[in-house]
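> example.struct
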């Protein structure tokens, strides 16, 4: 069965074609560069560029997959959460395709799609229950997943998302946008304990806005004293990354122990972070497995949307109405 997936929740316009769970193509045009000069995603620009690029990525995805539109059996698209204007473009496009091709349509939750990433290409058997760990630009959440139709939120950030804090700290230190990859590259393990900061934690909930503010004030203080050289900056950024990632890892481990779960399934842009991937892998044991997706499926892409759409469609033949509305955050 061929599934066509569409993802437009933020600044990536993406279309994928899957044959069952095998990814035949996954084409993404990112409007990242257009937003870089503003230091963050500008919703209006993202919406306009989705409109400009959506048919282009769809054509490319079909060509790359060697599949024609008429061969598509199912259409899946992100309907929540995300920027409202951005969601409207992809959702309407997918619903219109479904209507014209007379093929079923399914709306997918983008966060749930992130934790489908490790299952693409049948890389792992889909077995429940597990903990889902989503660490992205807009969200930091831990789920108890009995099935992709039975997902309970057990922990989340109470303020900024992890990726958002990486982006904001990087912006304050002039490291460019997006900040996550810049901080990942700058990180130096020899300097990860140079400074001591703290993240907030209440149960399985987290808080990152305090550490962000601390980093911004530390920079102002050191600049005033004229002592912010590059080595100090690397120490600050490395310590920041180390503490944020350690907090996430220890919280998810605590949740797995408490809920007696033997599997943690990870997804979201920040899961591309090399140090986070190493930390998670290092905590794997006979009693606890970490499923970490390949880099290409960590950040926003339509492959994960199509994969989850296909799973849900097979499960009780779920399908969505063509009147399904987009829901923002
Ligand atoms: O999942 P995603 O593509 O979009 C959302 O759904 O939000 O995540 C984007 C976020 C950005 O904040 C970006 O800075 C962060 O993921 N990110 C990283 C890395 N690559 C992307 N953060 C840390 N290290 C990375 N290597
Ligand atoms: Zn995402």
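> example.seq
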């Amino acid at each position: 069965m061929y599934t066509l997936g569409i993802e437009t929740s933020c600044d990536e316009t993406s279309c994928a074609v899957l044959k069952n769970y095998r990814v035949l193509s996954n084409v993404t045009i990112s409007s990242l560069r257009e937003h870089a000069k503003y230091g963050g995603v500008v919703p209006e620009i993202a919406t306009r560029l989705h409109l400009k690029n959506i048919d282009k990525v769809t054509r490319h995805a079909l060509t790359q997959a060697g599949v024609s539109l008429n061969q598509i059996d199912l259409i899946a698209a992100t309907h929540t959460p995300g920027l409202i204007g951005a969601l409207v473009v992809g959702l309407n496009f997918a619903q219109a395709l479904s209507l014209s091709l007379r093929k079923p349509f399914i709306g997918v939750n983008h966060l749930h799609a992130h934790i489908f990433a490790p299952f693409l290409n049948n890389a792992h058997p889909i077995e429940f229950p597990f903990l889902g760990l989503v660490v992205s630009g807009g969200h930091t959440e831990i789920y108890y997943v009995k099935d992709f139709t039975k997902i309970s939120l057990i922990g989340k950030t109470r303020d900024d998302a992890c990726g958002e804090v990486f982006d904001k700290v990087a912006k304050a230190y002039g490291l460019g946008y997006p900040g996550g990859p810049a901080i990942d590259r700058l990180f130096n393990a020899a300097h990860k304990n140079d400074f001591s900061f703290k993240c907030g934690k209440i149960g399985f909930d987290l808080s990152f806005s305090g550490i962000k503010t601390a980093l911004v004030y530390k920079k102002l203080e050191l600049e005033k004293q004229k002592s912010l050289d590059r080595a100090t900056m690397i120490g600050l950024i490395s310590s920041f990354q180390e503490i944020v990632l350690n907090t996430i890892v220890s919280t998810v481990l605590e949740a797995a122990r408490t809920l007696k779960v033997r599997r943690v399934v990870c997804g979201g842009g920040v899961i591309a972070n090399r140090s986070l991937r190493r930390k998670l892998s290092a905590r794997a044991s006979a009693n606890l497995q970490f499923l970490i997706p390949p880099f290409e499926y960590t950040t926003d892409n339509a492959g994960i949307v199509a994969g989850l759409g296909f799973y849900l469609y097979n499960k009780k033949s779920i399908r969505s109405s063509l009147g399904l509305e987009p829901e923002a955050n």
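> remarks
Residues 10, 136-138, 163-164, 166-167, 178-181, 184, 268-270, 272-273, 299-300 surround KG4 (ligand 1) (CB under 6 Å).
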